[in-house]
Amino acid sequence: MADILRLDSAGNPLxxxxxxxxxxYYAKGMVVWTLGEPFRILHGGRNRFTGLQSHMDIHPVISxxxxxxxxxxVPALTNAALFRRDGHLCMYCGRxxxxxxxTRDHIIPTSKGGKDSWTNxxxxxxxxxxxxxxxxxxxxxxxxxxxxxxxNWHEFLCLTGRRILADQMEFLRAGFHHLQA
Length: 181
Fold this sequence. Notes:
The protein has 181 residues and is α+β, with helices and mostly antiparallel strands. It has helices spanning 19-27, 79-85, 126-132, 137-140, 153-160, 166-173; strands at residues 4-7, 13-17, 31-35, 40-46, 53-58, 61-64, 102-106, 121-125. A hairpin with a 6-residue loop joins strand 4 and strand 5 (53-58).
């Protein structure tokens, strides 16, 4: 079941929420605007006078009233998000792997002052990571297949979404780094 993409009132993506939390925002009148066609209809009780059942249309993207999020923060670095950022490819040999066969490699090893940050880590298969060890790339003759980067919040939400709907993906893609001039 797909989650709902929650935005602040200014349209900045915040996080994924479930249908219960979204229904609460709708019920409290806090939804400012929506994107996409309703993809879920929640049914409530019956009106004892009319006999009609209440319902609530849930949209895939909702903007919720409140303080706009103005401070950009670096997304949490997790192996799952890192592996998705790098397309489940070893950034040294270029071959695809499943999560359990990938590791987080520090380009500048932590033993040599390298940070555990988005711009210093890449996916590496176990074989390449063991070969590289705690050496610098120059010492190993390994070459990076892509430059590591810190995903912005749009990209991070895409990396952490489980089942992203087309309307949600369209909204998130508009904020990707590579699409900005």
